[in-house]
Design goal:
- The protein has a six-stranded mixed beta sheet. A six-stranded parallel beta sheet has the order 14-13-12-15-16-17.
- Helix content is about 45%, strand content about 20%.
- The protein is of the alpha/beta class.
- It contains 23 helices and 23 strands.
């Protein structure tokens, strides 16, 4: 309304001015008189307007002052805890609710540091949108607002009590269902080897143990196949299962039978911190079961998003007597090889005799099928130099090797990539090669660990096998192709088997010797294998030094440290670990090698100690009797020894008889 009046006054003054000018043309005296009136009105308007504005501004300031006073009183009395702090966390103001929630007795918090007084992470609170603060059994959701006074920066902190919401969320989390898949590993062996009148008795005992376990957990259990169960229980029970190391594994294994066959289970459980539907929940649990089976069974795998936890696995993987799976896999592999335009064969970094030998064996299959096959290898190390030189003596293998760079030029859509002796992405000779490959096959005898290769057309992993060469030999027996294997390829496969079994003394089964017999019929010579595995004098001397440095711990475990920056340092470490097992009373050995990359650990066992479970605690893996681990960037051998001893101590505590 006031603005409207001002506009009318301005319009009247301008009108007087215009009329005075117009009248002046007719009567000069009246025109001068009109201009005098205009000047009087104009001067009066200019003097009165600032006075009005001052009064208005003063009134506005009074209003804002009253509002600030009201806001300050309201903020102080609000039930939401609030505080103003500077960038360092110094408290400049806090309201009544904040004082009640966080003040210690009568001690004021003004000018105190919120970070030190309340152990409050100010940096994370400012950075995160959904920050939660825990104090005195209460949970607070924290919201921050930044402002400045032209000199200093401040944060207005709002603390919303979300304790009840947190409790309900945790209750929901504990009550949410988990899917648990259970498989009787050697069901087929029970059916095949047990007399008919004892099968039902043994399987009945297994079923009773599993159902008693389920009842104890208060879970629902369904036998959806003859050897498979699905159990659903509350998430809150998982901690107790982990703490007891899944005792159901021991309970089933201890079921006595006249055939002395250990009955084992594989268990897979998936957990996620994300909110998943039923379909997604059962999928991650089934994936955990696949990992347990791939690692040889007799264990439970708990998969928490991408993190894996392993329990059990105390026994070596049971050898499968039936060869049905090998026959099916052989048929599938043969068809995939026939459909491919080219075939690439690739193993792990720093390939050994088993890795290269299995690749050479499949190279013969490529030739028999009329397909171009190439072995992808970055460089020739000491472990495979003798076999590599042996192959190059034959002109058929002089063009058989390509580098990872050359392999990138191959057609990604219709090239079959066969990965041998590993199933872990980070261990591959060229990890980037699998990214665009449409057809991938994995053949390996190691227990699964780390990030495995995904999207494969076929995966053949058997942890019971002595070597990848043994698995490849079994597959090749079912190819039914003429000229499938010559003596050179048979010797390469035999050398790989001899290396991994230590000349058929470790980790051998009936099928190992059957595979060796097949290779002998194809022209393999164990003398040539022995020659290919021979060491030179320097290597033998270095191995002797590593053995000499060994010290005995826990009365029966040998640990040795040594430094070697040569290409064959890791080979020396592995061989020295084998040699230590020849000492009377030693049941397990560890060699810690220092090289330019850091520390490399080789573990060996006679079977009483599971070196795989020990070295998995250091990020490694392998088998019960043969395992390894690496600690990149670490150059202190004593630290490496302490880490190994800590891992052994944890292993012993986990495996104490309860």
């Amino acid at each position: 309304m006031k603005e409207y009046k001002k506009t009318l006054i301005r319009f009247a003054i301008i009108s007087v001015f215009v009329l005075s000018i117009l009248i002046g043309f007719y009567n000069i005296y009246l025109g001068i008189f009109g201009l005098m009136i205009f000047l009087t009105l104009f001067i009066f308007y200019k003097k009165s307007n600032p006075r009005d504005e001052i009064q208005i501004n003063k009134a506005i300031d009074e209003i804002y002052s009253d509002l600030d006073k009201i806001n300050q009183e309201r903020m102080y009395e609000m039930p939401i805890s609030m505080a103003i702090v500077d960038g360092d966390g110094i408290i400049y103001w806090y309201n009544q609710a904040f004082g009640k929630a966080f003040k210690k007795e009568k001690e004021a918090l003004f000018k105190k540091n919120i970070v030190e007084e309340l152990e409050f992470n100010l940096t994370e609170a400012v950075k995160q949108e959904d920050f939660t603060f825990h104090h005195d059994d209460r949970d607070y959701g924290v919201v921050t607002n930044a402002f400045t006074d032209s000199v200093h920066s401040f944060e207005l902190l709002h603390f919303f009590d979300v304790t009840e919401q947190s409790r309900q969320k945790e209750l929901y989390r504990k009550k949410s269902p988990l899917f648990c898949y259970i498989v009787v590993d050697n069901y087929d062996e029970i059916i095949e080897q047990f007399p008919s009148h004892k099968r039902s008795e043994i399987l009945g005992k297994v079923d009773l143990k599993i159902n008693e376990w389920a009842k104890k957990l208060g879970s629902v259990i369904i036998e959806y196949e003859k050897d498979r169960y699905l159990m659903i229980f509350e998430r809150g029970k998982i901690c107790a299962l982990q703490k007891e190391n899944f005792q159901i594994l021991d309970a089933v294994r201890e079921i006595e039978n006249d055939e002395k066959i250990p009955i084992t289970l594989s268990i897979g459980i998936g957990i996620s911190e994300k909110i998943l539907g039923i379909k997604e929940s059962q999928e991650i649990s089934h994936a955990a079961l696949d990992i347990a089976l791939a690692r040889g069974g007799d264990q439970a795998v708990v998969r928490q998003d991408e993190k894996m936890s392993f329990y059990g696995g105390k026994t070596e993987a049971t050898e499968k007597r039936t060869k049905v799976k090998a026959r099916v896999k052989a048929y599938g592999l043969k068809e995939l090889m026939k459909e491919a335009d080219q075939i690439l064969l690739m193993g792990h970094q720093n390939p050994d005799m088993d890795c290269l030998g299995s690749a050479v064996g499949l190279l013969g299959a490529c030739k028999a099928l009329g397909k171009e096959g190439k072995i992808v290898i970055k460089e020739i190390n000491y472990s495979i130099k003798s076999l590599f030189d042996y192959l190059l003596e034959n002109k058929d293998y002089q063009d058989a090797f390509i580098t990872p760079k050359e392999a990138e030029a191959y057609n990604k859509k219709n090239t079959l990539l066969i990965i041998l002796d590993t199933q872990t992405v980070s261990y591959l000779e060229s990890p980037g090669l699998i990214e665009d490959m449409a057809k991938i096959v994995v053949i390996d005898h190691h227990r699964r660990s780390g990030k495995s290769i995904e999207n494969t057309l076929m995966t053949y992993t058997e942890a019971y096998a002595s070597s990848t060469c043994e698995l490849v030999t079994e597959l090749l027996q079912y190819f039914d192709e003429k000229n499938l294997m010559n003596a050179v390829e048979a010797n390469a496969l035999m050398a790989g088997m001899c290396m991994d079994t230590k000349m058929f003394t470790l980790k051998t089964g009936v099928r190992t010797f059957e595979a060796a017999s097949y290779l002998k019929r194809k022209g393999a010579d164990t003398i040539i294998s022995k020659i290919l595995l021979q060491d030179d004098l320097n290597t033998y001397t270095a191995k002797s030094d590593a053995v000499k440095n060994a010290k005995i711990y826990y009365d029966n475990i040998a640990i040795s440290t040594f430094e070697n920056n040569t290409d064959y340092g890791k080979l020396i470490a592995a061989q020295a670990a084998d040699e230590l097992l020849n000492i009377k009373g030693i049941v397990a050995s560890f060699i810690i090698l220092k090289n330019i990359e850091g520390l490399a650990i080789s573990g060996r066992s006679m079977g009483e100690v599971n070196v795989q479970l020990i070295l998995e605690k250091l990020g490694g893996g392998g088998h019960l009797a043969i395992a390894g681990a690496q600690i990149p960037g670490e150059g202190n051998l004593e630290i490496g020894k302490e880490l190994v001893l800590e891992a052994i101590e944890k292993y012993k505590k986990e495996n104490e008889t309860k």
